[in-house]
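Quarterly update, task 2.4: flavin-adenine dinucleotide-bound model.
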Amino acid sequence: MDNAPISLWDASAVECDYRQSLAGDVTTEVAIIGGGFTGLSTALHCAEKGLDAHVLEAEQIGFGGSGRNCGLVNAALWMPPQDVRKKLGTTYGPRFIDFFGGGPSYVFSLIEKHQIRCEATKTGTIHAAHAPSGFKDLEGRAAEWKRLGEPVDLLSREEVKDLIGTDVFHGGLLDHRAGTINPMGYCRGLARAARGAGAKISTGVRATKLHKDGAKWRIETNQGTVTADKVVLGTNAYSDDLWPGLAKVFTMIHYFQLATKPLGPEAAHILPGRQGLWDTGQIMFNYRRDGFDRLLVGSMGKVVGTVDKGLSHRWAKKQIARIFPSLGPMEFEEAWHGQIAMTPDHLPRIYELADGLFTPIGYNGRGITTGTLFGQAMANLISGMDRADLPLPITELSTVPSAPILKRLYQTAFTANQMMKSI
Ligand SMILES: Cc1cc2nc3c(=O)[nH]c(=O)nc-3n(C[C@H](O)[C@H](O)[C@H](O)COP(=O)(O)OP(=O)(O)OC[C@H]3O[C@@H](n4cnc5c(N)ncnc54)[C@H](O)[C@@H]3O)c2cc1C
C-alpha cells in the first residue's frame, strides 16, 4: 500500500495509527468487517459488554469515509424532523429524531471519556442559506426543531455575517448541539478505546468470502480465516462484493475537499467561533477551519487534478476569493475525496443479511454520529436487546436498480458544477 496520506486528517491527527496483521486463523464471538466509525464503535461497545470482538480492516483504520470526511458532528438527520416523522411514522419517527438528535452529545462524551485527541470544538455548526429559497427551508427546519425544544437559532443575513466572516450568505441555522472534530483523530481514538476495552483489530485484512459453517460464520481473508458467532459489516459506501447485492443498496457519490496551508491570524475572522458550515445549495458546499487554522473547502464530486493544479484547485481558489476576497492567493496542502452512500429516501438502513449477520448502511453523508450510535446499537442487539428497541426497524435488503446510472449522472453534474464555478 502506498504511504501517501489519504486525507489532511491522516497527516494531521495527533492520535497514533495502529496497524497489525492477523495472527493466523482465529475465533471470536463477534467479527466486525470495516475499521471506520461503525466497526470501531461496534467493537468498543461489544468489548465493554465483555464480548470478544475482532475488527478486520482491508486497508488502515479510517480508510473509508471515517478518515476523509469534513468533521462536522451533526445530529444525524439530513431531512427536517417533520419529513422524518412522515417517512417513519409515529413509532420510529420520534424515536429516530430523539436518538440521533442526541448523537453529537454522545460522540463528545466518548471523546471526553477516552480523552480522544481530535481537535474537538463544541460551538455548533451552521447551515447557511445560499439563496432566499434556502433561507425559507431553514425557517421551516428551525420552527420544527424549536417546537421540539432543541437548541437551534435561526439567524438573519446580518446576524450570520460576523459569525461566518462573509456577507455572501442569506442567513443561517446555528445548531448548538453540534461541533467539529478531526475525524481521523476520532476514528483512531475509538480504535485505541476499543483495544483498551479488550477488542482486537487487524489491518490490511480483506474479507473475501463469508459463509455459514454449521452454527458459526466463517470469514476467509487474504491473511487467514476468522470464525465467529455473529458478524457486523461496517463497510458502508466502501462495500465490495463480499455480500451479494450489498454494494447495490445505495447510490455512491463522491465528496472532495482541499485544505490550505495554515493561515495564522489572517484567518481569525473566518468562523471565529470555529463552527463548521455547509450550505443549502443543491450541490452542497462546505467550509471550516481546522485546529491549525487551515481553511478547508469542499463540495460534491471528485478531486479533478492535483492539490496544486487542475480543475479542483481552480475551483477552490475561486470559492475562497468569492467568499473571503481579503485573503489573497492561497497555497493548498492536501486535496482528497471519499465515497458516500446515498439512499433514495435519505434514511439509513439496518439489514439482517442472514441469521446473525447485520449491517447498518447508507448514512447519506452523516456518519460521525450515525456510525457511533449504530455501533452502540449493534452491540446492544448482539448482547440481547430486543430488536423492536432499535432506532430503526430491521428491513429487507432492497437494491437501487438505477444506482449505476445515477452515479454516472451525478459525477457528470458535479464535475460540470466545478467547471462552472471555476470561471
Ligand atoms: C468527503 C466526505 C465528507 C463527509 N462529511 C461528513 C461530515 O462532515 N459529517 C458526518 O457526520 N459525516 C460525513 N461524511 C460521511 C461519513 O464520513 C461516513 O458516513 C462514515 O465515515 C461512515 O463510517 P463507516 O464506519 O460506516 O464506514 P467507512 O468509514 O467508510 O468504513 C468502511 C471500511 O470498510 C472497509 N472495508 C470494505 N470492504 C472490506 C472488506 N471486504 N474487508 C475488510 N474491510 C473492508 C474499508 O476499507 C473502510 O475502511 C462524509 C463523507 C465523505 C466521504
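Highlight for this quarter: The chain has two domains: 8-69+184-246+346-399, 104-177+252-343+413-420.
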